[in-house]
Design a protein that fits this description.
alpha+beta, four-stranded mixed β-sheet, 4 helices, 34% helix, globular
Length: 176
């Protein structure tokens, strides 16, 4: 019999995961169950996307996390901060619960760098946001990516404060 290391590793991982899957009170035999139901309108009410009821979020409600639609970036970076990743999970949950909703991710940069470089950087930023959203269940056909580079600044002028506002991806909901 030929020794197959990859099968042994997979079997070991399955055994470990099976041992970790048991939850609840061992004495009474009760097991915690997570409700992954849907509301009357078909929206996800809990589960992989958090315990929030996405059907209650209004895209235009300023107290909703969905009202925040700009992801900011450090200089010459397409890396998303952990707090912005959490925001993207909220937007992803809404989009998963509403598969007919489409968005455009608009990548932007500050004025430093060549036009070509900034178009590519804006694209990398928008693709980083798209990747996070797709990993959280958003369908690729719900997302359009466009890069404006430095062509549509959020703030005019020069200096760190202005440049910081211009290094961003805007989430634009269609029909809003």
């Amino acid at each position: 019999m030929k020794f197959n290391l990859s099968r042994l590793i997979v079997a070991g991982l399955i055994a470990v995961l099976a041992g970790c899957s048991s939850t609840g009170d061992k004495q009474s035999g009760d097991v915690a169950v997570e409700d992954r139901g849907t509301s009357a309108d078909g929206a996800v009410t809990s589960g992989a996307y958090g315990s929030s009821d996405f059907s209650s979020y209004s895209l235009n409600d300023p107290s909703s996390p969905l009202a925040r639609r700009v992801i900011y970036f450090e200089y010459d970076s397409a890396e998303i901060t952990s707090s912005d990743q959490e925001l993207l999970v909220q937007h992803s949950g809404y989009l998963v619960a509403n598969p007919g909703q489409q968005i455009t991710l608009e990548g932007h940069t500050d004025e430093r760098g060549s036009r070509e470089y900034n178009i590519a950087l804006g694209d990398r930023r928008a693709l980083s946001v798209q990747r996070i959203m797709e990993l959280n269940g958003v369908l690729p056909e719900q997302i359009t990516v466009v890069s404006y580079g430095e062509e549509k600044p959020a703030a005019e002028g020069h200096g760190d404060a202005v440049w910081r506002l211009n290094r961003r991806v805007e989430i634009v909901y269609q029909g809003q």
